[in-house]
Amino acid sequence: MEAKELVALNNEKRKRLTDENLAYYEDMLVYIRLNLKGSEQQTEEVLMEILDHLLLGQSEGKTAQAIFGENLKAYCEEIIAEIPKEKSRDNVLFSVYIVLQFLAVILVTNGIVGYGLYIFGGFGSEVMKISVGAIFIKGLVALIELAFYLWLLVTVIRKTLFSNAKREKIYAYLMLFLLTSTLIGVFILIQRIVPDFGSIIEVPIYTSALIGLIFYIISYIMNKRFRIV
Amino acid sequence: MNTRSQLLKGVLEGCILAIIAQAPTYGYELSLKLQEFGLEEVSEGSIYPILLRLQKFDLITGTMQKSAAGPKRKYYHLTESGKQALATFTDQWEAMKGPVDSMLQKAEGGI
After folding, report:
1. Are residues A163 and A69 in the same domain?
2. CB-CB: which of A42, A46, A52 is closest to B73?
3. Do residue A214 and residue A154 come from a single domain?
4. Is it the case that residue A36 has pLDDT exceeding 60?
5. How far is Cα B69 from Cα B55, in angstroms, rounded to an integer?
6. What count of other Cβ atoms lies within 10 Å of the Cβ of residue A150?
7. Are residues A104 and A39 in the same domain?
8. Which end of chain B has the smaller Cβ count within 10 Å, N or C?
């Protein structure tokens, strides 16, 4: 069975857990899946085995703590340590997919909003002046920010998932909020301060949406072909 | 019981290989068999990191098969290198069992 089918089956089967066991199991699931370096296939197979075990144990009146121990985080770490690494081909495909989707959203939004504002509100201009040098720098910064942001999200969730201390969770999410705001600020600042350099090309503003759409279609075909997400 | 102790881990690996050698087994069944043999102190979940490790070293392979109860389960089989590893474990255990027992008995006698 492929990883995607296992995920779907897992979603179905999980509904049979009691509330208490479901909360316990979903913490495990999130923590183990957040180990992005691990083979997806092996990750989903072991998650399914653990779920099956918990369901059978539940029918015999055993609690999740009795089966997996009191220290859930340590148990998950043991599992993660033994999951083989994902093939680098799959990692590259996944990264390219994420980047294409990210760029598609930005470009389509930019194109539609820009064109809409011009047509209906008379704001801005119908043509977009693109500085080849500046757009390269801006795009690069945006991608670095995206990578950093994803890393930040994963780290915060991993750090706080098993913590019962409310204060620690509130602190972590407050930090996340501040860092998110800062990142958005930096993003806007960079878009404004990077000077134009290199050759300038002029295209209608809706071109942005068209290019975004092409990126989206490429990512869609990639996903159909390689079953990435 | 702290299942992270290296001794227990190694012994459990050998026991799991021995059980899978008798018949293809899935996770829950395996934990029941370990308990039947008297390893009741081992928490049930501790078999899964070990199963992953045995697969990583290609000592066992898992295939999804229909179980007697109906739903598909991941059944583990021993590979050729798994059989060799089990033979090695058995030899080492046999060689150590006597000496360790008598040493521990002597030590107890001295207390």
Report:
1. no
2. A52
3. yes
4. yes
5. 25
6. 13
7. no
8. C
Find, in chain A, the residue whose alpha carbon is nearest to that of B49: A79
Looking at the fold, whether A38 and A73 belong to one and the same domain comes out as: yes
Q: What is the pLDDT of residues A179-211, one digit of tens each?
A: 999 989 988 898 888 888 888 888 898 899 999
Domain boundary pick from A60, A82, A104:
A82
Q: How confident is the model at residue B110 (pLDDT cuts 50, 70, 90)?
A: low
Q: Residues A76, A122: one domain? A: no
CATH 1.10.10.10 fits B6-110, yes or no: yes
**What's the structural domain count of chain A?**
2
Q: Which of B44, B61, B66 has the most A C-beta neighbours within 10 Å, making it the best mutation to test the interface with A?
A: B44
- Where in chain B are the domains? 6-110
Would you state the pLDDT for residue B3? Answer: 46
In this prediction, residue A217 carries a pLDDT of 96
Is A52's CB within 8 Å of B48's CB? no
CA A76 to chain B, closest CA, distance in angstroms equals 9
Is the ipTM above a cut-off of 0.95? no
pLDDT digits (tens, 9 = 90+) for B2-19: 545 778 888 899 999 999
Pick the range with the lowest mean pLDDT from A57-66, A126-135, A160-169, B71-80. Answer: A160-169
Domain that holds residue A166: 88-226
- In the listed set A82, A108, A127, which residue is the last one of a domain according to the structure? A82
